[in-house]
Amino acid sequence: MNKENNLILVEKYLLVVRRNLLIKDKDDIINNLYDEILYTLNDDYSDEHVKEVLETLGNPSLLAMKYQSTDKYLIGPQLYDLYLYANKISLQISSIIFVIFTIVISALDVYKDTFVLSAFISSTIVGYIWLFGQVILWVTIIFAICQKTLTADQTQEYIQQLAKWDITRLNTVEPENQIKKADLIGSLILIPIMFLLLFNFRHYNFTINNESYYVLNQSILPQIFILFGISNLFSFGVQVLLLIKGRWNTSLVVLDLCSQLLGIAISYYLIFSLKMFAFLQTPLLSQFSDTIYQWITIGTIIIVFITILISLYRLFTVFDKKSKMK
Amino acid sequence: MDNNHYFTELKRGSIIIAVLSQLNAPKYGYELVRALNDAGYNIEQNTLYPLLRRLEKQNVLQSTIKVYESRERKYYSLTANGRELYAELVKVWSETNLILNHLIELGGIL
Q: Where are the alpha helices (DSSP H) in chain A?
């Protein structure tokens, strides 16, 4: 195994230390700590030795706490790790509730005359931003109160609990440039399912006022399957490659971005130029088709923007990691 | 009986002199820890860092960021104030040392 593979545990350890440092000069501290670990490892990068060295350093949260001075904090080093965790969990739970709530509301309102798609989307976005702010605000207030009322004995007790640290806890830490396997497996299952569903329902039609309408534009079915086939095959290949490699590097980020942009471009071309969705031409929906197409365009632009941003972030973490691990 | 906190207490006052003594030329954090440890003065990075930050705030030390092997490092060195302080601390330390040695001899316990 190469040095980089053996140092994954060190990288995870440093990531937890960094996350718990509430001071400036984080990079400098992490660089020096990395130097110290490398020096102590003394060119022996075996799993056992790496674990032994990290166990000697102890709980990374506790180590980060030792680097802090005795300055006053709104949320101190003793509670900071827990504070991050509480924020993460609260945001996840509230997001799930928000999504369910939004689906229920939209299902109830969509048939009303007063329903305006653009107003609904904007109020959902604003609502989520408001919820995000509220969750962080209330978690912060609760932790600030806890911090204020924390006695010296409680702090000591908490530190003693932190000291009982087990290195296996690092297994749950994901390095910054690790590819999430759950996402990949999800995509690998979803891509063929979507394709098969599209294929099976290619002739699906429905009847309104004794008139039959197809969901898909029947005159361009070959184009739909050829183009989606190319896009899905490419995307599937990229996902398999990502699963094999396990960690982001520059080529994988570029390849993944290309596959996603290709998928978006093909979908956009089929929807707009080839009018793939025949059901948008039904009398019921044709009156909204301009608005729907307008929102699909806006949605596409937002998706492209987010996709590029995510790729840039991944590139940044790849370069950042490269510079740290030299 | 755990005597460690007595030793820690005794050592605490001397840390500043030990650190300043090694900063005639700029050094980065871990380099400084190594220099001190190699000389037999054991100190951990997490003890040194808050001290370095405090001394920098008090204008005893100054720092510059330099890139070494593609990684940024913060190098600390003495300011003019730091050099003056160091000279005074060493003077007080020497005097205290003489007095303490004299007292230990006078006490005759050891």
A: 3-6, 8-19, 26-41, 47-57, 60-67, 77-109, 117-149, 152-163, 181-200, 221-245, 250-268, 283-286, 289-324
Q: Which range (A57-71, A106-120, A278-292, B73-87) has the least confidence?
A: A106-120
Q: What ipTM was predicted for this assembly?
A: 0.71
Count CB atoms within 10 A of the CB of residue A262. Answer: 16
In the chain, the amino acid numbered A317 is: T
Closest-CA distance of chain A to residue B102, Å: 37
Distances (CA, A) of B106 to A263, B10, B98, B99, B102: 89, 21, 12, 10, 6
Cβ distance A23 to B53 less than 8 Å, yes or no, reads: yes
Model confidence pLDDT, tens digit, residues A21-35 = 877 778 888 888 888
Q: What is the pLDDT of residues A178-200, one digit of tens each?
A: 788 887 888 888 888 888 888 88
- Tell me the mean pLDDT in the region A140-148: 88
Tell me which chain A residues have a C-beta less than 8 angstroms from the C-beta of B54.
69
Per-residue pLDDT tens over the stretch A159-183:
777 778 888 888 777 777 778 888 7
Residues of A with CB under 8 A from a CB of B: 23, 25, 27-29, 31-33, 35-36, 39, 63, 66-69, 323-324, 326
Smallest CA-to-CA distance from A248 within A161, A300, A317, A309 is with: A317
Q: Do A31 and B73 touch (CB under 8 A)?
A: yes
Tell me the residue length of chain A.
326
Q: At what angle do helices A47-57 and A26-41 cross, to 10 degrees?
A: 130
Model pTM greater than 0.80?
no
The Cα A3–Cα A225 span in angstroms is 46
Q: Which residue of A67, A319, A321, A323 is the best one to mutate when testing the B interface, meaning the one whose CB has the most B CBs within 10 A? A: A67
Query: Is residue A201 within 8 Å of A208, Cβ to Cβ?
Result: no
